[in-house]
Amino acid sequence: MRKLPTRIGLALAGVAFFSIALAVSVAVIAEPAPKPVAGITNIMNAVNHETEGLYGMIKKFCDGGGQGSADQWKMMRHRAQVMAECGNILMAKSPPRGADDAAGMAKWKQHCANFRDASKKLSKALAFKKMNKVTPALAAVAAQCDACHNDHKSN
Ligand code: HEC
Fold first, then answer.
1. Which pLDDT value is given to residue 22?
2. Cα–Cα dist 135/115, whole Å
3. CA 145 / ligand 1 centre spacing (Å)
4. Centre of ligand 1 from the C-alpha of residue 21, in Å
5. To 5 degrees, how large is the angle CA 93–CA 52–CA 105?
6. pLDDT tens digits for 9-49?
């Protein structure tokens, strides 16, 4: 058998190396996403409930005029950030009503995005520690609760 020229040998080694690297990256990317744990109802109660959820805690704080320490204001921002993240989480779920076709699913995802963005704005408003910024931002979140429920909540 004739010996391969070194150049070709190196080229083949290079191709082999990159194929392995590619195979490893594909295997990493293809790893299945973790299975979701919380459903829509869990999120609504733990995060969005008007008295018991994170939203309820922010609402109570604001209804009381935002009388609190800097740490309490900061805690309200953490809560608003998690509410916003839940907008992202909700996107991957299907509501019990109004999302049976592609158009319905698109509408649902838009509601989730609007809720996420309103919650992000609430978080930003809370950073000012000023009620004249927080009150309208909180009302805008509440409007998103109603808008989504009108289209997708079962009753
Ligand atoms: C993106 C859509 C969407 C947004 C935004 C949304 N919800 Fe919901 N909510 C739902 C759906 C869908 C259900 C019904 C879930 C089911 O029955 O499977 C629901 C159910 C609920 C429930 C009832 C849970 C139960 O145990 O039956 C409460 C309370 C609730 N939402 C509060 C809120 C509040 C407060 C907000 C705003 C801070 C809000 N939701 C924002 C979609 C949304």
1. 66
2. 16
3. 7
4. 45
5. 15
6. 677 776 776 676 666 666 667 889 899 999 999 999 999 99
